[in-house]
Design goal:
By secondary structure, this protein is of the alpha/beta class. The protein contains 15 helices and 30 strands. The strands form seven sheets. The protein has a nine-stranded mixed sheet with strand order 3-2-13-12-14-15-16-17-18, with helices on both faces. Helix 8 links the parallel strand 12 and strand 13. It starts with a strand and ends in a 7-residue tail after the last helix. The mean pLDDT is 94.
Length: 530
């Protein structure tokens, strides 16, 4: 089946024309008509510069309005966007661009020195396009590409299973893997997220022109993947905020100034914002749809207390592109419910918990969480063996997560299968231990991992903890964390709690790299091996 690439936004631009579509915190703004014209100019300008249909084009920039233009333009002209996360090291980008055979790299001037140093290693990149006023001589200014382009809609028909873009996994368990999103699966992602946002719990209205969606976290991750298009297609305003440095006070002020109604936020970044809200007794009356990832029950209860009924706790993966399950603020009927990740988020999604052989398990039985959805129907670029291993028969995608499902159909997440700690007594799920520690009022972030303290001994549970800035007596807090953990089964209690200044993370602090943490702890003298 053939479909017109990017036609959903073409219809939105025709409908909302001169209505403001996107602004960024650097002062740029575009109406729907202007955004369409710029996207068409970017796509056709790249084609005029020698980029061919089907070429892979890397995009490396912090959040700014040009990123949205380029993303839309690439899709509309059949160019395959390679999503490069702005918080990864340049060596990661080099490896990714070489793996996918990218012909072109569009980058912001802030990355010019890193790109310059890596050019000899970029085996397939033939052209460089620089966004910004300080374009190096070896690159073409983005403004020149726009000048070569044409504002006319391309009306390009593509096969629905052609690659639309490559979404990189988060890299928490190794080098990020490029997942292919076809034009068909991308439409599935958008429709799933529209249904998810339109059915956001009791009393919540559908997304519409009165909404304001804030993107403070890197567009390359979930915020651009999940919420950008649903709000754009409904005539809402998207605010694109610079994500180079996270400052909770700046974020809170942006939410107030722009009267934000919707936002996606990782839980580790939400906690310091809630601290400010509680300290200064701030209210956010416009906020209606707060999508949270990686939350604990205690954090969700705090959100309800401070912000009211405006949240959902989502669970998903880069391969799916949307929350596949969600816990809504109005789907709570017991204390245990707060700790779940809810039920399937839309009619597009099926979820099971299965055995190692892929057989469905009964309520409460721990197994692998698998998902079947049109959003994850392709595979990893150039990695056929990993693609094959990522599916059980019948199209069930294996995200590598462990959990259970209760009799009411709610999923309870335990952890990544690769992160389980095999102790002398039994299996420990780091996520469970971290949730317990994060309930401590002085803890800003924590990571739990397994380290061997004897050469032939079993792994020991070690917790590394970042404290909130106002904490004075670090040793007293460390002791109190151990006391808090004493309520857990003995084998789940950390053998050591180590106070650290920072944790190894990805996605701008959203997720802890537990394997990296284990090696850092060993290098610092905690234990002898991983």
């Amino acid at each position: 089946m053939r479909i017109e690439a990017g036609s959903a936004f073409t219809r939105a631009a025709a409908r909302f024309g001169d209505r403001l579509a996107v602004i960024d915190t650097l002062g740029s703004r575009r109406t729907y008509r202007q955004l369409q014209d710029r996207a068409n100019s970017a796509g056709s300008g790249l084609m005029a510069s020698g980029v061919k249909r089907g070429d892979r084009v890397g995009v490396l920039s912090h959040n700014r309005i040009e990123v949205v233009e380029v993303w839309l333009g690439l899709e509309r002209f059949g160019l395959v966007r390679v999503v490069l996360h702005s918080h990864f090291e340049i060596s990661t980008h080099v490896k990714t661009l070489n793996e996918v055979g990218a012909s072109t790299l569009v980058f912001h001037e802030a990355f010019a020195s890193e790109v310059a140093a890596a050019r000899e290693e970029l085996a397939t990149v033939e052209r460089y396009v620089c966004i910004g006023e300080s374009c190096p001589e070896w690159a073409v200014p983005y403004s020149s590409v726009i000048g070569k382009g044409d504002v006319a809609n391309p009306c390009l028909d593509v096969e629905e299973d052609e690659p639309c873009f490559l979404q990189l996994t988060t890299g928490t368990t190794g080098h990020p893997k490029p997942w292919i999103h076809t034009h068909r699966s991308w439409r599935g992602v958008i429709e799933n997220n529209i249904e998810h946002l339109d059915s956001f719990g009791r009393g919540s209205a559908a997304v519409g022109p009165d909404d304001v969606n804030l993107h403070f976290h890197a567009l390359q991750w979930a915020t651009g993947f999940q919420t950008l298009m649903p709000y754009l297609l409904r005539g809402a305003l998207s605010v694109v905020a610079d994500d180079s440095v996270f400052d909770p006070a700046v974020l809170l002020q942006q939410m107030i100034d722009h009267r934000v109604t919707g936002m996606l936020i990782p839980a580790p970044m939400l906690e310091p914002v809630l601290d400010l809200i509680e300290r200064d007794e701030i209210t956010l009356p416009n906020l209606r749809k707060l999508v949270i990832f990686f939350a604990t029950a205690e954090l969700l209860q705090r959100v309800s207390r401070l912000l009211g009924d405006c949240w959902c706790h989502g669970y998903g993966s880069s391969e799916q592109g949307a929350p596949v399950t969600r816990l809504l603020f109005d789907d709570l009927d017991s204390e245990d419910t707060w700790g779940s990740i809810g039920r399937p988020s839309s009619s597009f999604t099926e979820v099971r918990v299965v055995s190692v052989d892929g057989e469905p398990l009964g309520p409460g039985e721990v197994g692998e969480i698998v998902v079947r959805t049109p959003m994850a129907a392709a595979g990893y670029w150039g990695l056929p063996e990993k693609t094959s291993a990522a599916f059980f028969p019948g199209g069930w995608f294996r995200a590598g997560d462990v959990g259970s499902m209760d009799a009411d159909g709610r999923v309870h997440y335990l952890d990544r299968a690769k992160d389980m700690i095999q102790t002398e007594v039994g299996v420990v799920y780091p996520h469970v231990v971290e949730a317990r520690i994060l309930a401590h009022g002085s803890v800003a972030h924590c990571g739990v991992t397994g380290v061997r303290t004897e050469v032939d001994g079993p792994a020991q549970v070690i917790a590394a903890v970042v404290l909130k800035e106002e904490t004075d007596d670090r040793e007293a807090v460390r002791v109190s964390i151990l006391e808090l953990a004493a309520d857990a089964p003995e084998y789940e209690r950390p053998k050591q709690v180590i106070i650290v200044d920072e944790l190894p993370t990805v996605l701008g602090g959203a997720k802890v790299q537990r394997e990296v943490l284990a090696h850092l702890l060993v290098a610092a003298g905690t234990g002898v091996s991983v």
